[in-house]
Amino acid sequence: MAQSAAIKQFPFNWEGTDRAGKKVKGKTVAANESAVRTELRRQGVLATRVRKQNQLFTNKGKVTPGDIAVFSRQLATMMSAGIPMVQAFDIIGAGHENPAMQKLVLAIKSEVEGGTALAQALAKHPLHFDDLYVNLVAAGEQAGALETLLDKIATYKEKTEAIKKKIKKALFYPAAVVVVAIVVTAILLVFVIPEFESLFQGFGADLPAFTRLVIDLSNMVRSQGWIILILLVGSISGFIYAKKRHRGVQHFIDRVSLKIPIIGPILNKSAIARYSRTLSTTFAAGVPLVEALESVAGACGNIVYEEGVLKMRDEVATGQRLQRSMEDTELFPNMVVQMIAVGEESGSLDEMSGKVADFYEEEVDNAVDSMSSLIEPLIMSILGVLVGGLVVAMYLPIFKMGQVV
Questions:
Q1: pLDDT tens, 218-237?
Q2: Host H or E run for residue 105
Q3: For the chain, N or C: smaller number of CB within 10 Å?
């Protein structure tokens, strides 16, 4: 197994003819050209051309959560169709355009071929498969229902990735417009305002206070622009570093973000949706509630909710009902608590939490769409005030001179 995993593999493009004489082509990953031709012969394909992909271009890229979601669905579909696991890995790896994903799938395939359980093989890649993913796969293997669990995992990954994309969509647009506004304002201050300043020097009259303020701001940006830029970049970099490295900073940011108008409610609904979806998936897989809550905590995407769920786990471990522990956190709306209570009473916690997840995922969709329609005119107004203010400041002296004449 160790020797197999140590052999370096490369992506190859190939062309050939099948048993019926039909031309076929595709991609595969192997140690060398000979191994590709041998594998193709085993599949009944006579290779006419085998070419190694250019590594200068194919080594770029990384495995994204979206890649993992697609991989989960592909593997679940193939295993449900009765395709052996190793063959499924071959098909997925060969058909993937991302070389980093090809390499990951190949590494997992090598482990599985060597006799390692799928959960253990996935656990060796913690950057791409978290504890929740590995635990669900392990539960499926132990229960002899891996195909069913893989389907649940695929659905879970697709739903959580959809929520993430919605949140990114909600935050990206206003952030992008703010950046554009800053760039446009900087260009006007550096290149346009100085031209007006030289024009105003021949007026021989005092400039309006607003115009003088804009000219002074332009002079400051031109003379100290690099210092301002360095301070701005340094502040952003320090903020990102502190958020990643210091839990206290991250806790403060997550707590404040939940209270921001318009955006805060979306983040709250997103966290509840992810909590409910993860709880439904883990509980349906047969994971005990206390262990499930530990996985759920890390999947909420917000430290405030993560700490709340961990507190719930401790209370449930002492015998308290999940409904009561949710009420104690004061993070969940009454409707969510009551739905979970019904699920506990009826023994259908996975089904009820799934319904909660469906409801809040739809709420996030609607909230993002509403925010986009609300924030668009607001952003256009801000841009108009910034750019229009600079233009008015430059034309005020001209208007004043016209009145004197």
A1: 888 888 878 888 988 898 88
A2: helix 99-113
A3: C
Distance CA 379, CA 385 (A): 10
Q: Identify the helix (H) or strand (E) that includes residue 173.
A: helix 146-187
pTM: 0.67
Residue type, position 301, single letter: G
Please give the backbone phi and psi of residue 30, each rounded to the nearest 5 degrees, phi first.
-155, 175
Beta strand 46-52 with 23-30 is unpaired
The length of the chain, given as a count of residues: 405
CA torsion angle 246 247 250 255 (round to 10)? -150
pLDDT tens string 32-58: 788 888 878 887 888 888 887 665 444
User: How far is Cα 65 from Cα 52, in angstroms, rounded to an integer?
Assistant: 27
Q: Residue type at 53?
A: Q
Tell me the per-residue pLDDT of 289-341, one tens digit each, with 9 for 90 and over: 888 888 888 888 888 999 999 999 999 999 899 999 999 998 999 999 999 99
Token pair in block for residue 95: 């058909």
Q: What 3-state DSSP class applies to 168?
A: helix
Among residues 114, 120, 94, which one has the least CA distance to residue 105? 94
Closest CA to 67 of 154, 8, 141: 154
Q: How far is CA 4 from CA 87, 110, 132, 257, 272, in A?
A: 16, 7, 28, 48, 44
Structure tokens at 299: 């999947």
Cβ neighbours, 10 Å, residue 380: 11
- 180 in the Ramachandran plot: left (φ > 0), alpha (ψ -120 to 50) or beta? alpha
- How far is the C-alpha of 231 from the C-alpha of 221, rounded, in Å? 13
Q: Buried b vs exposed e over 180-193: b needs ≥16 C-beta within 10 Å?
A: ebeeebeebbeeeb
